[in-house]
Amino acid sequence: MKNWYALYVKSRHEFVANNELIKKEIKTFLPAVKKLRAWKDRKKWVDFPLFPGYLFINIEPWHESFLSVLKTRGAINLLSAEPGYPTPVSPDEISSLQLLIESGRDFDIYPELKEGTNVRVKRGPLQGAVGTLVERHDQHLFLVNVELLGRSIGVKIYADDLEAN
């Protein structure tokens, strides 16, 4: 059974490593956002990785699979809680991130937040996403946490669109 893992890559090599892994027929997920960049002579929408230095891969938990990934151009290391044993990322976290990205809604990135209530979105474009509810500046935010990276993505949401998980 395949698991999702977080791959740490060289600075500014997220898209390079992603393309190389796709050529090796390895399923990847590189969450990215478009930002308007301005130069002296022009403006252009550019893709930026949501988590600079990281992308997610879906592989079998075998030594050969890990080795194949680490031999990819730009790859540095698979994140692990215990040295030598890559730690899988929760499939719920990956699917919630994918839902949030595909929704097209504006969001912000926050440091990992432990406090708050675990919630599931019960309606709307994020239906089924699992995350944490926090209140910030009198607004409710729905956060999708990727605990292994120590990061969260937040989007403004109406509390009545949520249910306890």
Give an overview in words:
This protein is 19% helix and 42% strand. The chain is an alpha+beta fold and 165 residues long. The chain folds into two domains: 3-89, NusG, N-terminal domain (Alpha-Beta Plaits); 91-164, SH3 type barrels (Roll). Strands 8-12-11-10-9-13 form a six-stranded antiparallel beta sheet. Strands 1, 2, 5, 6 and 7 form a five-stranded antiparallel beta sheet that branches. Strands 3-4 form a two-stranded antiparallel sheet. The protein starts with a strand and ends with a strand. The model has no long low-confidence stretch (mean pLDDT 87).
Which key phrases capture this entry?
165 residues; alpha+beta; Alpha-Beta Plaits; SH3 type barrels; 6-stranded antiparallel sheet; globular
Residue-averaged pLDDT: 87
Structural class: alpha+beta
Determine the fraction of residues in helical runs and give it as a percent range: 10-25%
Supply the number of structural domains.
Answer: 2
State the CATH class of the largest domain: Alpha Beta
Element order: H for helix, E for strand = EHEEEEHEEHEEEEEE
